[in-house]
Amino acid sequence: MHSKFRTFAGQLLIAANIFILFLLFFENKLVIPAWLQTIGRMHPLILHFPIVILLLAMLLEYFSFRPEYAKNQFYRNFLHNLLLAGSLLAAVTVIMGLFLSREEGYEGEILNYHKWTGAGIFFFASFIYFIRSSTWYKAPVAKAGSLLTVAALVVTGHYGAALTHGMNFIWEPIEARKEAASIAPEQAVVFTHVVQPILEQKCTSCHNADKMKGQLSLTDAQSLLKGGKSGKVLVPGNPEISLLLERIHMPTEEKKHMPPSGKPQLTPQETAILHLWIKDQAKFDKKLASYPSGDSLQILAAAYLKPASRETEFDFPSADEAEITALNSDYRTIVPLAKNSPALAVNIYNRATYTSKQLNELDGIRKQVIALNLNKMPVNDADLEIIGKFENLQKLNLNFTEISAGGLKALTGLKNLSSLAISGTKIKYSELSALLPAFKNLKSVSVWNTPLSEPEIVQLQKANGSMAIIGGFKDDGKNMLRLNPPQMKNSSPVFAGTMALQLKHPINGVEIRYTMDGSEPDSVKSPLANDKLLLAKSENIKAKAFKNGWYGSETVQFEVYKCSFQPDSVHLLAPLNRVHQATGAKTFFDQKLGVIGANNPAWANNWAGVKDNDMVLVSEFKKPALISSVGIHYMIEEDTGIFPPEIVEVWGGKDAESMKLLSKFKTEMPAKGDKPSLKTMEGKFKPQTVSCLKIVAKPLNKIPEWHKSKGNKALLLVDEMFLN
Amino acid sequence: MEKEILEHGFSFNRRRFLSGMSLGLGSVALGSLLMPDLLKGGNREEEGLTPGIPHFAPKAKRVIYMFQNGAPSQQELFDYKPKLREMFGKEIPPSVRGMQRLTGMTANQASFPLVGSFVDFAQYGDSRAWVSNLMPYTAKIVNDLCFVKSMYTEAINHDPALTFLQTGSQQGNRPSMGSWLSYGLGNENKNLPNFTVLLSRGVGNGQGVYSKLWSNGFLDSVHQGVQFSKGEDPVLYLRDPDGMNRQDRRDMLDNLAQLNDLSYQEFGDPEIAAKIKQYEMAYRMQTAVPEVMDLSRESDDIVKLYGPECLVPGTYAANCLLARKLSENGVRFVQLYHQGWDQHGNLPFEITKQAMDVDQASAALVTDLKQRGLLDETLVIWGGEFGRTSYTQGKLAADNYGRDHHPRCFTIWMAGGGIKPGMVYGETDELGYNIIKDPVHVHDFQATILHQLGLDHEKLVFRHLGRRYRLTDVSGKVIKDIIS
């Protein structure tokens, strides 16, 4: 070889070494474009060259120090060039192999061995090439090196063959292995096609005729029945005492657990299959078809035999990214299914802006659209013609659109359509039953809220066994539920002159009946609530909601309070508790009532409170008011020491100096165990014209003997007062 | 002479080395052509994620998470333990309790008597799943549900446990699950926020929920959860002020966007761009939100399905109905919180009320999605932040008891979104105290959710303060067995 060529080739070899090292180092980041994949796939073609050339080179190398060859210029030159060529071809092969290994389906231990031994050969051969001119490179080194290379070649070749043809390729014909390929469930034999494959996958790599760990083989019926060192492994009919399952069920930490930790374990389904098969007498020739349908073993075995559904791959090209971006708008989103997937999902929103144009514009990407959501859009039959051209469409949502059966016909050409939602449309049973069989690949159809009746849906399901016909909830009048009670919609239960009571219910067509005499509202006799009901005084209203097909609601009580006079100014003569400030003096006439309950703490809910001093409120009126009663609204929660006022005094007069005691009244004290409640106490007196009014409410000074805080002062909480 | 030869050899080698190396470097350059992401430096860990596009084909497109805030007692709802009734009043065996850390509420309790459920259970559906009589509507749909009875968490109190479930960390400041999904999946509907939050409260003892639970953390603020409230303005400050018409608003936004754009040009802060986007979305939301929130046109069937409360804004039932409507309109993550499940005492009374509040509407949501053909692409989750103890807290009476916090096991259910329907996964011991089969850590649960949405939880990362963050922190594995 010309020495220039050789130098160049030598440099190429260095470059190849670096390149391969680099590829190996960043292997995980390799992304192989399609055109390089084809080069990668030539790996099995090229690999034979380096094998043969390196084998030959190593043979020559082995004898290269024999005197007759060592002096032969041609021999030495030829060998040197041969080794160089072999190494370079090995480089090419390794690079191709690395490309190929990035394709799907290449993984696992064998690949790893193959990869590293293969790369090793290349590095080693290059190494030999570069060092063989050194002075210390003598016959023994050459012999050892060439033997090692040859051994590596054999090993690598073996792993490569195993990758391509399977581990047992060579011996397979002799062993006459059983066909384990997919088999129709009707012909499947439970042992041969289910149990045995499980054992082969998880057990027989150690328990076979060649490698009988624990003197056990699990490859066939005889050896299974024979058992191993620890005795029989299965007791037909008795999975509980079968050693096979005992070992599988042991905790994984246990040394005797099988398969050993680190090896692939049995899935729960596989364990269940073994269990049920042994329970059923471990029959070796019973067919799957002879088990009754619904039998656990039958279900599990059938599921095991069913080929695993692979993720759908798409064979259409990606759409132009700029076009997708251009088509995306505020009301039409087009998103890729996933990174590197050509498939697109389109959603269209906003009824008001929808036009057929939005579908027509998708023509450029019609191949790529696999999901289209037109829920609640005014889509009509003409639009379906456009959709009929979306040849790869899988999922179509036409719920609550304006389509008819005629339009749906245009979709029967969509060979990939698997899910169709037409809930809330006007499609009829007769139309749909004629149409559905034309959809060959349809897996599910939602027909809720269409004219289809329950029996029709059942009928449709029967006729189209391969699809799931999804009905849904339709009220047949048998689902009696209790209505929720009516609500009072007035902004406040406190009013000055008159109040138009607004009783409402959120459900359409509900009747609200009420009473104001304390009796229970009746669905027939009690008056119907309407907006014209005017209240002129404080009332206790009971109301109930009724509707056909529903149970009447629980009775709800609304208390409304009349407060004829609003003072022009109010102030407190004694402080409120630090935590029960509410809105200070304004609290009492703000027409807002407080709330009670564990989730509504008093301090946060409009309650003004006192404990250590009286509640003393002075109200002033610019225009004298004729007042004949004072009401006070308070909370009682005996358990937490919240009691009514012990005494309420009402003072009135022309001004602050000349006030007289108008009324003094007591309230009813709760008994032990009374439920928390809100009460109003009213003190009536002879009508008095006042410009200044003082209300003194004294908290209970000594909590009664029966209470856990007996003798202490009670808390008084007031949220509103009513002047009439 | 020898020296010269040696030196000659060196220089020759150096030259050869250099020329060889230059070829080698060339080969590296050639190789790097095959590694598009190799030299992208700082962004390398975000490899595989183009924000807004899933890593692989997703099973689910959206999530509705009905969070039962306060931790519902699994012993009264789904985890049937007859042994607890047999051992009523007996002390919990120390071997079962082990070194379990207790809350401050029961740590000083003198005894830990076991208590069984006051309510009976029955088996339903093809999976023969146990459901208590408190959940009759849920019982009817077990064929659509996958119960996970072996959830466990690391926190023992509400706030950290809740924060852990929502953000993958017990301390706050990390993005919520909904924010991560918004970041990873992008918008389906550009007129509604991608992540919405609905709150409701039952009569039972409640625990707080706070906006940090739907915070975007260090992610872009467009991924923040938007709370929809029950009042007249579901989204606060969305309505135009009185007297402002649509055109005025439009003009105002256009001018504002120009101004904002100027400062964006100057500073290049992505938050400014986010702000412009949010103004625009708010403008479109002004029409989209009232439409979605309008419950007045729901049919009688729907009202019967969800129960009458569904038309009362702010109730759990109304939130379930809204969740369906939002999800149907492309909102990626709808987060409900229902408060009131913290039954330390008075459990039988309170849990009955709580269950009544949520049972019908939760089941209705699943049914409603199914009848619209949406269940297969919507992942529905129901559950709390931890479980409750098998022993009583406080006084034990035949008809009254309480249960304390229990992080070692609790039950949740999932439906739709590519989760196996009609399945019970995991198992607890016969006292319902420890998991004996298939434990599911919170991070496993989160990894599984992300997986169903086409996201690899190890690749959905964001670089912040010099390190990468994930929803699942540094652990979590997808629970393959519950995926169909």
Automatic annotation (TrEMBL), chain A:
Domain Cytochrome c: 182-282
Domain of life: Bacteria
GO molecular function: electron transfer activity; heme binding; metal ion binding
Keyword Metal-binding: yes
TM ranges: 7-26, 46-65, 77-101, 113-132, 144-161
PROSITE patterns named among the record's database cross-references: CYTC
InterPro entries: Cyt_c-like_dom, Cyt_c-like_dom_sf, Cyt_c_Planctomycete-type, DUF2231_TM, Fn3_assoc_repeat, LRR_dom_sf
Keyword terms, alphabetized: Heme, Iron, Membrane, Metal-binding, Transmembrane, Transmembrane helix
Signal sequence coordinates: none
PANTHER family for the chain: CYCLOINULO-OLIGOSACCHARIDE FRUCTANOTRANSFERASE-RELATED, F-BOX DOMAIN-CONTAINING PROTEIN
Protein name, UniProt field: Cytochrome C
Source organism per UniProt: Dyadobacter sediminis
UniProtKB/TrEMBL annotation, chain B:
Pfam families listed in its UniProt record: DUF1501
InterPro entries in the cross-refs: Alkaline_phosphatase_core_sf, DUF1501, TAT_signal
Protein name: DUF1501 domain-containing protein
